[in-house]
Predict the structure.
Amino acid sequence: DADVTQTPRNRITKTGKRIMLECSQTKGHDRMYWYRQDPGLGLRLIYYSFDVKDINKGEISDGYSVSRQAQAKFSLSLESAIPNQTALYFCATSDFSRRSTDTQYFGPGTRLTVL
Amino acid sequence: QKEVEQDPGPLSVPEGAIVSLNCTYSNSAFQYFMWYRQYSRKGPELLMYTYSSGNKEDGRFTAQVDKSSKYISLFIRDSQPSDSATYLCAMSAGNAGNMLTFGGGTRLMVKP
């Protein structure tokens, strides 16, 4: 079984709809992240969480919100989706205590299309 | 200007060739350097991890860091079609809470 899972894997929605992307992990890591990937722009950080009670905005948080329901679960919401949020979304986890930097492990991604 | 620059490619090479992938960066505080490999429709997976300057070898892969030039490289020897993927460099300053900064990725195609 995969250590980091994301649901759904693909989603097509319309402008103005509320969308939730979910991430679960079995790695036992405290840190979880949400990124979006656009062609040529690499991975850009949306939100990150160092534990259940710690949520932080990343580089591009506008238009997004998150919820850390448990150590293993981290959800990303688009309250009112717009077409320029069409992208590939990745969840990642890391265990900072094992290394001196954030070596991150990624889920398989969710391809979101907003029409 | 982006903090981490990476040629997007695509880079097309014949099987067996030596591949060189590169990133340049502007933040002198970066001291941890990583290469991730991403196959089509998959999440990135960690390939190589290097601290500070120098070389690190793992099988057919060699990661090289030159902090004085703010330049990192990934070499792939005896490239295989299975190496066809997008390669992303990533780096951080390593402080608690310090995030990874990614390059845009280079798409590599190894042709049989």
